[in-house]
Amino acid sequence: MKRSTVGGLPRTGESAESRASLSRRNVLRMGGMAVVAAGLTGLATPVASAAERGRSREAAVGSSTFMAWKGIAGDQRIWWNGLQSGGGSWTGPQPVAGASTSAGVALAGQSGGPLFMTWKGVEGDERVWWNWFDGGAWSGPQPVPGASSSVGPALAPYAGLFMAWKGATGDQRIWWNSYFGGWTAPQVVPDANTSFSPALAIRKNGYNDLFMAWKGVDGDQRIWWNTYLGGSSGTNAWTGPQTIDGASTSAGVALAGTPDGSLQMTWKGVVGDQRIWWSQLYPRASTWSAPQPIPGANTSVGPALTVYGDSTYMTWKGVDGDERIWWSRLSGSTWTAPDVVPGANTSFRPALATLGV
Predict the structure, then answer these.
(1) Of 184, 202, 208, 301, which has the maximum CB count within 10 A?
(2) Digit-coded pLDDT (tens) for 105-137
(3) What's the CA gap between 298 and 57, in Å, rounded?
């Protein structure tokens, strides 16, 4: 059977008519889940040893929610694991072969996979890199053409993949591109500037709107947000940036969309405040709820968020001097008591993703 490619990755059994119907424009029109609905599965297997594939399968067994992170101070390897046992425990951490960073990692993937990862390179390398996981092994890292960052990117499973990132050293603009059959050329998000990395999430309101939030530039600790309006065109169209009343941070912001159409946002406080704060944008609302601290959750960098089932999950690096990764979940309106992710340690902040979220 003839082999063809989807998203630059091989699959089989595709006619010329199906290729035409699955153009990037059509996928954007249908929304983020179109990639799965159209049957873009059966991806080619990355080359890996039997031992590597076995270890990776152990981390992935029973998981659709994954975490990745930079190692502790002095360790630039990227590590990963998976949520298991119905969301109650984590698999053992493993390094991602060939993947290293001095800062930020991002994860995202359509329902059914594969899982994609992007990250900033090691010290002295500001290129943004990417790879993917097929359920058995990670592919070899590749640089994203034209994408450079001093901090790291954000990802969302919007019509394939959508990525946003702070620019290289000296460039506080936020850039974006997307991946469907290949990476598009980077574009600047109008009027959006940051000294850290932004966050992306899809609001599941029937339209799968894409939202972004970020810390302001150096000296501006306010949190800003906007919405992507490119839709089926893929053009550089966004709503104007707005601040969120009462929300400020010295570092990282995290976003996640829940099944009821709400958005959850968490963040580290301002300089001198290591508490993690939380706000919600309810379905059909246009203003965020008043920020409130999450009991017992503290960080020196910032959190990560995802949704698994009906619960929102959060992970984060501990306070100054604590490189352990902690986790909690929101069920209803209550966060569970923070707990340590066994064997997971970082000097930065982790990334979280559930396939299809």
Answers:
(1) 202
(2) 999 998 888 999 999 999 999 999 999 998 889
(3) 32
Q: Can you list the positions of beta strands (E) in 26-103?
A: 65-70, 77-84, 89-90, 94-100
- The DSSP code sequence of 140-161 is PPEEEEEEE-SS-EEEE-SSSE
CA distance 140 to 328: 32
The span from the CA of 273 to the CA of 250, in Å, is 9
pTM to 2 decimals?
0.85
Instruction: Supply 347's token pair.
Output: 């000097």
CA distance 219 to 192: 15
353 Cβ neighbours under 8 A, 6+ residues apart: 65, 66, 107, 108, 109, 115, 155, 306
Distance CA 192, CA 184 (A): 19
Q: CA 348, CA 302: separation in Å to the nearest integer?
A: 8
pLDDT digits (tens, 9 = 90+) for 142-179: 999 999 999 999 999 998 899 999 999 999 999 999 99
| Helix runs in the chain, H state only | 16-21, 24-30, 34-37, 50-60
Cα–Cα distance for residue pair 200/109, rounded to 1 Å: 13
